[in-house]
Hints:
The protein is α+β, with helices and mostly antiparallel strands. The chain has helices spanning 2-7, 9-38, 62-83, 91-98, 109-124, 134-140, 152-160, 189-202, 298-311, 313-322; strands at 40-48, 51-59, 104-106, 167-170, 173-176, 208-213, 216-221, 229-234, 243-249, 253-259, 264-267, 270-273, 288-295, 326-331, 335-338, 346-348, 354-356. It has three domains: 44-84 and 185-224, no CATH class; 98-176, ApbE-like superfamily (T-fold), CATH 1.10.3980.10; 228-357, ApbE-like domains (T-fold). Helix 5 runs parallel beside helix 9 (298-311). The protein is globular and about 100 Å long. Residues 187, 256, 258, 302, 305-306 line the site of magnesium ion (MG).
Amino acid sequence: MIRFFAKYRHLITAVVAFVFIGAMVYFGVRMNRLRDMDVQSETYAGTAMGTALKKTIYAEDINQSDQVNKQIDDCIGSLEKQISIRIADSEISKCNANYAVDGIYPLSPNVLKYLKREIQISEETDGAYSPCIRPLVDVWKIEEHGNVVPEPNAIEDALKAVNTDDVEVVDTGVILHGENMALDFGASGKGIACDEVAELLKNTQVQGAVISIGGSILAYGNKGDNKDWHIGIQDPRDKDGEVVGIIDTEGNKIISTSGDYEKYFEQDGKRYHHILDPATGYPADNGLISVTVVSSSGIDSDILSTACFVMGLENGLKYVQEKGAEAIFITAQKKIYVTDGLRKKFRLKADGYELVK
Ligand code: ADP
Ligand code: MG
C-alpha cells in the first residue's frame, strides 16, 4: 500500500489538486450565482419636483423595494415642502412672498445649509449660477410655455433683483437685501433630492438603485455584482430617451445634465431655452448645448451642470475640474469634450458627434 502511494504520489497529488480546484471553482460560481439571484429589481415611475421621477431598486424581495419606494417618495415630498416654488406654502415660497428687505427670514437648518453652498458656487462662478434667479425666470416664463422674447426693459428690471451679493445667510435664516427678490432651487433641487435619497438608502437593506429625477440621476450601490452602472446621457439633438453616449460609473455618484433642449421656444429661427445667464438676462448663448457633471455630491453635480452651461466650454471645464468633479461638454458643432477622469468611462453611441481628445 505504502509502496503504491510512493509510486503514484505525483499522480495522486495531481488528481487531488484537480478535484480540489474544480470544487473551488464550482462552488465559487454557485455562490456568485446565488448572490446574483438574491437581488431583484423593481422599477417605479412617477413625477416629483415638476418632472419625471423613475426609481429602479435592487433588493432582496419586492416587499423591501416597495417599502423603500414609499420612503423615497416621502423623502422627496418633505424636501419639496422646504424648497419648492411650486408649493405655495413651502419654506422658500413663503420666504419669497413675505420677506422684509434687510430683515432675517427664518429658514430651517437644512435649507440654510444648501443655500450656503449655492452662494459659495455663485461667488466662485462670478454669478453664472445665482440662487436668486427667480425674477428673471418669471419674466421669461419658459417653464409656463412662454414663447416670446420679453421686452428689454422687463429683463433689465428683473435683473435688478438678481444679485447674489444681496443674499446673506445667518444662523437662523436668510437676509435678502433687495426688493422683489426671490430664491429659486430650480437648478439645485433635483441634485439635493439625490443626496437625501442616497442618505436614506444607506439606512436600508437595498443593494443598489438608480433614481432619476429630471436631469439628475443617482447611481447608488450596485446590482449585487460589484460592477459599474451604465448611465445613458440624453442626445441633445435627438428624441427624448435617445442617448448620445454612456457613462460607466461606480455607485454613489450623481450625474446631472443641463441642456438647451429641455425647455425652449424658437423665435425668428433662434432658440431661447431655460438656462439663463445672469450677466445678460438672456439664455446662455456660448456654443454649448449640453453639460453633464458627475460628482459624489448631488447638489454640486446639479448646480455645476447649470453653472458650467452658463460659463461656457473653457471656463466651465476649468472650474468643474477645480471642484473635483468630472464632466462632459457638448457644443453646437457636436464636438464632445470629456474630463480626464471620464475619458475611459464614456462611450460615444450617437452618429454625427466627434469626441475631442
Ligand atoms: P433641469 O431643470 O432641466 O434639470 P437645470 O438643473 O439646469 O435643468 O435647471 C434649470 C432651472 O434652473 C431653470 O428652470 C431655472 O429655474 C433655474 N436657472 C436657470 N438659469 C439659472 C442660473 N444661471 N442660475 C441658477 N438657476 C438657474
Ligand atoms: Mg442643474
